[in-house]
Amino acid sequence: MEFTAKQIAELINGTIEGDENASVSTFAKIEEGRKGAISFLSNPKYTHYIYDTDSSVVIINKDLELENEVKATLIRVDNAYECVAKLLQMYESMKPQKTGIDSLAFISPKATIGKNCYIGAFAFIGDGVVIGDNTQIYPNTYIGDKVTIGNDCIINPNVTIYQGCIVNNRVTIHSGTVIGADGFGFAPSENGYDKIPQIGIVTIEDDVEIGANTCIDRSTMGSTYIRKGAKLDNLIQIAHNAEVGKNTVMAAQCGIAGSTKVGDWCMFGGQVGIAGHLHITDHTTVGAQAGITGSIKKEGQTIIGSPAIDAKTYMKSYAVYRRLTDMYMQINKMQKEIEELKRK
Fold first, then answer.
1. Which of 172, 170, 196 is nearest to 183 (CA)?
2. How confident is the model at residue 96 (pLDDT cuts 50, 70, 90)?
3. Which of 88, 76, 118, 259 is nearest to 184 (CA)?
4. Which of the two ends of the chain, N or C, has the fewest CB atoms closer than 10 A to its terminal CB?
5. CB 22 within 8 A of CB 56
6. What is the pTM of this model?
């Protein structure tokens, strides 16, 4: 499907510089541009590519000042990155959706399947499962007994959702993810460790996206919660009875220990680790590889390091840390001079 620069500009409220009839049918990175493609430029580091790109149309910010002429038709907008995200969402929504039930899928006669659903080969749908309208269950996925899945969800191949868990509307779960495995609960005894039964569930609210090979454990009692609009990357571990707040985002390899509550609109870099039974308040930003051992109570704080501390304090401390070798040598030298003076 082709669109002209004029049509795209109307969709994103942009201003055209160049040929308004320039047509595009695909997307490309600006450094890999080709005829018939649309690209975008939002990071100043990539500005030099705009002068040579072969893309037919490039979306740029209104305030970007160019030093030379460009071949491409430009569309100036307030925020190029946001506009491209909008266009990509529209492009994705235009793709035809799969529907129908593959003959090789197993669906319990006690399950309820909504309208316009797709269930792929070798998917397993257990007793008492309820699946809403327009939801897609891809091959080799396991949906345990009494699981509820809402409307317009995408459950990709090889996902496992254990019994009783709840997945609300417009949720996307990527391949290899496990929802509702037992929480890590064991009680020490004379003979080793006694398993504590995990009889709760996992509840995933509307508009959540969960990356590949992520694990979200069922609670001991009650529910582990992933709140509305949260986005989890690949390879994340959310332990039993934890809660991830609304619109919180986590990069790959984060680990949240049991019963920790993460607030709304938080941002976590990769490999962040959080100890159990803590509370992380709203709008907290955590740098990559931070280790959080205590609750964060001040809203809007940025923390880094392990143990994690305020980012400004960390940078001041790190500046001293980098000089420790020189400081150590200076102290040794001063100590020798003092000893020499004492001998005299």
1. 196
2. confident
3. 259
4. C
5. yes
6. 0.85
Asked whether the beta carbons of 62 and 75 are under 8 A apart, the reply is no
Q: How many residues does the chain have?
A: 344
Mean pLDDT score, 153-161 = 98
Instruction: State the residue for tokens 């695909």.
Output: 26
Name every residue whose Cβ is closer than 8 Å to that of residue 216 and which is 6 or more positions away in sequence.
177, 178, 179, 180, 202, 204, 210, 224, 226, 238
pLDDT tier at 168 (50, 70, 90 boundaries)? Answer: very high
Q: Rounded to the nearest 5 degrees, what angle is found at the Cα of 192, between the Cα atoms of 189 and 197?
A: 75
**CB of 284 closer than 8 Å to CB of 301:** yes
Q: How far is residue 98's CA from residue 241's CA, in Å, rounded to a whole number?
A: 35
Largest interatomic CA distance in the chain: 98
For residue 44, cis peptide bond before it (omega within 30 degrees of 0): no
Q: What share of the chain is helix, strand, coil (3-state, %, to 5)?
A: 20, 30, 50
Of the residues 240, 277, 279, 283, only one is catalytic, namely 240
Sequence-ordered alpha helix ranges (H) in 73-138: 80-93
Bridge-based pairing of strands 154-155 and 136-137 is parallel
Residue 1, pLDDT score: 76
240 given a catalytic annotation: yes
